[in-house]
Design brief:
- The chain is built from 13 helices and 5 strands.
- By secondary structure, it is of the alpha+beta class.
- It has 2 domains: about 170 residues, no CATH class; about 140 residues, Heat Shock Protein 90, CATH 3.30.565.10.
- Helix 4 packs antiparallel against helix 5 and helix 8 runs antiparallel to helix 9.
């Protein structure tokens, strides 16, 4: 009920203030007719009515000038006390309302200052200038007590409003934080998809270019071998289209059910990858050390992409004759080594604006908790070596909460 009244008052402030002023005027006029038994009561009601009307009219500006309203209403009450009226809670209704709104609209220090001033002013005035000879307790303790009640109520209302404002501010901040986190995750996902597209396109286009060049070179002298390479070229482009479709499919809406997505590639497709490189004229050998252990999906995809990028760089830049891919499994890590003999005419360093493949491989390795080193070997050739955990930190925490 209180919340409903506050909402209505907030929507219609002028109407609410007018209704409150009229009600308080009625209380003040009724209080002017009350007196303590045996005390002298003023016979004229008009002075009290004028003072109460002025006090209630001043209440219309309590939102913009709460301090001034307290001073005016308190002055009217003191004038009524000097005229002989008893300061009962009905006659003090305009002052009590002004003190309530002062506590609601101002800070704690201001409220305490005005409360102390009001109590001292009323006590001194009623003790020294009250001609009605009312009982001392009604002239001192009574007014102070009635003034204290609206101050306590107004302070509680101010604290309640501050609490709700803080709750709303926290909710707004939490919503903005969630939106910012969602935008950040979307940006990260776009970067990941862009990296996937780069790996897919660069690898298959490099292989297709090498296969097409080899087929053209052998077309006249070895047509049968050239035809075989062209068949492999068709398989390479078909594989590229499938991976592109699966990767770009991640951008589709959830309700788009056309063409189910293929699972992310992993080391299980390593034979297919090496076969494509062999068809481009590069001899690729794969060796495995240790017991083959299962990898988490993120690490499996990272391992495949690093090998794919390394072979792509060999095909595009190194013009190597042989490449060795080594997989070494331990109890918690997988070490991948891709080494070529460098028997070609590739430049010693990538041209300006190129060479981002190594950066991408290093970022991939670091994203799953691994590291990567790459560089030329002392005896010739180039080597890429990465050490990856068998499981990403997220995967480990999901499998065993103790870790």
């Amino acid at each position: 009920m209180t919340i409903s009244l506050e909402r209505y008052s907030g929507r219609h402030p002028r109407l609410a203030d007018s209704a409150a002023a009229l009600a308080l005027l009625g209380f003040a006029l009724l209080g002017a007719a009350l007196s303590a038994p045996g005390a002298q009561q003023p016979h004229r009601i008009m002075p009290s009515a004028l003072l109460s009307g002025l006090a209630c009219l001043t209440l219309m500006w309590h939102r913009r000038h709460p301090r001034t309203v307290v001073v005016v209403t308190l002055g009217c009450a003191m004038a009524a006390s000097v005229l002989g009226y008893l300061l009962n809670p009905l006659l003090l209704a305009p002052v009590m309302a002004a003190m309530y709104w002062l506590a609601l609209h101002t800070d704690r220090r201001t409220t305490r200052l005005f409360l102390g001033g009001a109590v001292v002013t009323m006590t001194v005035t009623t003790v020294l200038a009250d001609p009605g000879e009312h009982p001392l307790i009604l002239r001192t303790i009574g007014p102070a007590f009635w003034i204290l009640l609206p101050v306590a109520s107004g302070s509680a209302a101010r604290l309640r409003h501050a609490y709700w404002e803080a709750v709303q501010a926290r909710a707004t901040y939490a919503e903005r934080s969630r939106e910012e986190e969602a935008r950040l995750r979307v940006a990260e996902e776009r970067m990941r998809i862009a990296r996937e597209l780069h790996d897919v396109v660069a690898h298959h286009m490099a292989l297709a270019n090498a296969q097409a060049g080899t087929a053209k070179h052998l077309a006249r002298s070895h047509p049968e071998q050239a035809e075989k390479i062209l068949g492999t070229l068709a398989d390479t482009t078909s594989s590229a289209l499938r991976e592109l479709k699966a990767t770009v499919g991640l951008l589709r809406q959830a309700n788009d059910t056309d063409a189910p997505l293929e699972p992310a590639p992993g080391l299980v497709r390593l034979p297919e990858l090496t076969a494509a490189c062999r068809s481009a004229g590069v001899k690729v050998t794969v060796s495995t050390e240790g017991t083959v252990r299962p990898l988490s999906p993120g690490v499996d995809l990272t391992a495949f992409r690093i090998v794919q990028e390394a072979l792509t760089n060999v095909t595009k830049h190194a013009a190597a004759a042989t490449v060795q891919v080594g997989l070494a499994y331990t109890h918690d890590r997988l070490t991948i080594t891709v080494t070529d003999d460098g028997a070609g005419t590739a430049p010693a360093a990538p041209a300006p604006g190129h060479g981002f493949g190594l950066i991408g491989m290093r970022e991939r390795a670091q994203s799953v908790g691994g590291d990567l080193r790459a560089g030329r070997r002392p005896d010739g050739g180039f080597e890429v070596m990465t050490a990856l955990p068998l499981h990403t930190p997220t995967a480990r925490s999901e499998e065993d909460p103790r870790t």
